[in-house]
Amino acid sequence: MAENDDDQQTATALEKQNAIDDWLPITSSRNAKWWFSAFHNVTAMVGAGVLSLPFALSELGWGPGVAILVTSWIITLYTLWQMVEMHEMVPGKRFDRYHELGQHVFGEKLGLWIIVPQQLMVEVGVNIVYMVTGGKSLKKFHELVCPNCSNIKLSYFIMIFASVQLVLAQLPNMNSISGISLAAAVMSLSYSTIAWVASANKGKQPDVDFGYKASTKVGAFFNFLSALGDVAFSYAGHNVVLEIQATIPSTPEKPSKKPMWKGVVVAYLVVAICYFPVAILGYWTFGNAVDDHILMTLQKPTWLIAAANMFVAIHVIGSYQIYAMGVFDMLETLLVTTFRLHLESHFAWLLGVSTVHNVRRHCRSLLRRLAWILRRLCICPDNLLHPLHHVANCLQAQKVRLILDGKLDLHCSGSVADGLGAYWRLEVDHSECRELPVLLLSLAIDFLIY
């Protein structure tokens, strides 16, 4: 009798969880095809950072620069393959979110403590950078197409960008933004093509210098580290891989990893087409005189550079939504499971509005500084997850320790900043992780309200 009661409770809990999953943004629609995976990954990975690769190459030099670009491409492809495989490594269960994989490895509570703060920092931080980048691209476009118009402050262009996100934030799930993501992927390929074609057309400049800019060894060393950060930033996107795969249907006969991997291969071919020509031809054309944004160095023809800046703005609109969808999913999960709110469409609308509004509200004086700090500290989605490598040996991780440990080790081998304080909270602290709802609520308040 007791066994039947337990089975009934388990079935009821599973039914309730399935009902929640059918409502949440990440898992409410699972009818994506392999090409959805392709352009979602292109949108998430290929960002405006590709335009800084010629500058990174100028600080690395020909040999080390090309070697690091190729090595980063191979390592990130390998680690992304590992994440695709881990999505369904437990029979009958899908790890639809990054923190669910962390919970399987480190335990229900400790996994959230480790993953959720870092993932929120990454997703909110990247969206802050994208909001500033989108505003700057719109401002540059305005200056190029209307040079005689009155000057408009950058903060107003950021507000225009935020207004677009305010509307797009009402879309209910990941598949509903597929059209936006496809447009963003096309735009990323377009402005990358403009950058390398314009560089090739300009030709190798007279008196081009391929030496290091820095006059001292110390300066050259720190420029080298900064360039590593630029390269690492350009290979972002792993932070939302599991969420993208969650939109693909899966059966025992046709697991989701097959179409997902097919899309990833196509996406990485696009990444190679975007990254290598821009980096190599941009550096070959201008040498160490190249700016940290290749479009700033090109300047002419004006109409082409204006178009490229508009393409950048459209691309980061789509990228913003890819990363924001994970934040929406976390907040809605918190409201449904912890506060027992049965959210209807108007609550979801309010959540999307408040999220975009409060990110925008802080941008006027802080976002530009924060974007600069993130870049100079070499902080990117891969670097922020680096501390997980040091705690992958706890007892809760034994079953998948080798897979996860190897993944994190390879994935972060290009990082220049080690995670300080990564040795805290081992298995002794696992049983002491209390008041988790308070932690999640405070994170939501810190990032999205105050």
User: Rg from C-alpha positions?
Assistant: 22 Å
What characteristic shape results from the CA principal axes?
globular
Low-confidence stretches: 379-450
**Strand/helix succession:** HHHHHHHHHHHHHHHHHH
Level-2 CATH architecture: Orthogonal Bundle
What's the number of extended β-strand segments?
0
Quaternary structure: single chain
Count of separate DSSP helical elements: 18
Query: CATH-wise, what's the superfamily?
Result: Hydantoin permease
- In total, how many domains does the architecture comprise? 1
Helical content class = 55-70%
CATH topology: Hydantoin permease
Describe the structure.
With 450 residues, the protein is an all-alpha fold. It has a single domain (29-448), classed as Hydantoin permease (Orthogonal Bundle). It has 18 helices and no strands. The protein has helices at residues 2-21, 34-45, 53-60, 62-86, 98-106, 108-145, 154-168, 178-202, 217-234, 241-245, 257-286, 294-298, 302-337, 345-361, 363-376, 381-384, 401-411, 436-448. Helix 8 (178-202) runs antiparallel to helix 13. The longest helix has 38 residues, at 108-145. It is globular, with a radius of gyration of 22 Å. Its main location: membrane. Keywords: Amino-acid transport, Membrane, Transmembrane, Transmembrane helix, Transport.
